[in-house]
TrEMBL record:
GO biological process, one term: positive regulation of neuromuscular synaptic transmission
Native organism: Lynx canadensis (Canada lynx)
Protein name from the UniProt record: Receptor associated protein of the synapse
Start-end of each TPR repeat: 123-156
Signal peptide: none
InterPro entries: Postsynaptic, Postsynaptic_CS, RAPsyn, Rapsyn_myristoylation/link_N, TPR-like_helical_dom_sf, TPR_rpt
SUPFAM superfamilies on file: TPR-like
Gene that this sequence comes from: RAPSN
UniProt keyword annotation of Repeat present: yes
Keyword field: Metal-binding, Repeat, TPR repeat
Domain Rapsyn myristoylation/linker region N-terminal: 1-80
Pfam families (alphabetical): Rapsyn_N, TPR_8
Single GO molecular function: acetylcholine receptor binding
GO cellular component, one term: plasma membrane
């Protein structure tokens, strides 16, 4: 496979990936690795594979391709390529919670002579290092690294990097329990997405919305938390972002726990887990969550007394009567009772 054909196949894979045909994109890129002799093309496709496996939560595969990318960069004898591959290696270890290794590889990046570390990629290296320090609970070092990454973003007009740093700062302040700042920074990230993010991946919007949801929950603004978390989950499901789906599930559970809706918390977890496993075609896991969902429904007696269907399985309009019995609104209307229409989504089910 020649240089031009390699470029075409990489672009074809990117188009498939951007249209959410992830497995087809991976197949195209793997074919490039098998057939192409173009080292630069192989390096680029390895970067695509690292990113794709990161977003799918396949961190061991991500690490494997990052290591191969380093070997390719050494063959190319190019310091810039070597910097990029070490950054991917640092990110892979960050995802695997190997934070000491992440810091070490980031320091290797910054120590490489004659590279773009002082300009294009330096901010990303500092961000990864900050995330690792945060994982190690070294808060002062984490903040120093985030502030350095933010300076890189401002000096280079890199709004995308600034968005990512703001989300990390949201996590930082949530951990040190300054909840106002924990909300401020992801709100700033959301503003950047609105102002500059027309050509960005939707993952940036999903990321900012998730961090806003966490902060709103910590501040006790549970309605706003639910709205942000639902928006983040919608995008994560659309793009097959499994790590973010998992984070959203935990956030939903925390929101319901904060409300005291322990049963609804379990229902939400099983319902969304069912959707995830259904999209992946994992039948055994799917059946397990379907069974647990219906067990939870039975335990909480969430059945419509008119139509007999379960309440909470899908978005539907409900009506709470003065006696505290809950019915599907369509059942009441069919029974001739002109009850007022009360929109009440499953995730926000709260009865006054």
């Amino acid at each position: 496979m020649g240089q031009d054909q390699t470029k075409q196949q990489i672009e074809k894979g990117l188009q498939l990936y951007q249209s959410n045909q992830t497995e087809k994109a991976l197949h195209v890129w793997m074919k490039v690795l098998e057939k192409s002799a173009d080292l630069v093309g192989r390096f680029r496709v390895l970067g695509c594979l690292v990113t794709a496996h990161s977003e799918m939560g396949r961190y061991k595969e991500m690490l494997k391709f990052a290591v191969v990318q380093i070997d390719t960069a050494r063959e190319l004898e190019d310091a810039d390529f070597l910097l990029e591959s070490y950054l991917n290696l640092a990110r892979s270890n960050e995802k695997l919670c190997e934070f000491h290794k992440t810091v070490s590889y980031c320091k290797t990046c910054l120590g490489l002579p004659g590279t773009r570390a002082g300009a294009q990629l330096g901010g990303q290296v500092s961000l990864s290092m900050g995330n690792a320090f945060l994982g190690l609970s070294l808060f002062q070092k984490a903040l120093e690294s985030f502030e350095k990454a933010l300076r890189y973003a401002h000096n280079n007009d890199d709004a995308m990097l600034e968005c990512r740093v703001c989300c990390s700062l949201g996590s930082f302040y949530a951990q040190v329990k300054d909840y106002e700042k924990a909300l401020f920074f992801p709100c700033k990230a959301a503003e950047l997405v609105n102002d500059y993010g027309k050509g960005w991946s939707l993952k940036y919007r999903a990321m900012s919305q998730y961090h806003m949801a966490v902060a709103y929950r910590l501040l006790g603004h549970l309605g706003s938390a639910m709205e942000c978390c639902e928006e983040s989950m919608k995008i994560a499901l659309q793009h097959g972002d499994r790590p973010l789906q998992a984070l959203c599930l935990l956030c939903f559970a925390d929101i319901h726990r904060s409300r005291g809706d322990l049963e609804l918390s379990q229902l939400k977890l099983h319902c969304l887990s069912e959707s995830i496993y259904r999209s992946k075609g994992l039948q055994r896991e799917l059946r397990a969550h379907v069974v647990r969902f219906h067990e939870c429904v039975e335990e909480t007696e969430l059945y419509c007394g008119l139509c007999g269907e379960s309440i909470g399985e899908r978005n539907s309009r409900l009506q709470a009567l003065p006696c505290s019995h809950i019915f599907h609104l369509r059942g009441l209307l069919a029974g001739g009772q002109g009850a007022p229409r009360v929109p009440l989504g499953y995730a926000r089910a709260q009865l006054a």
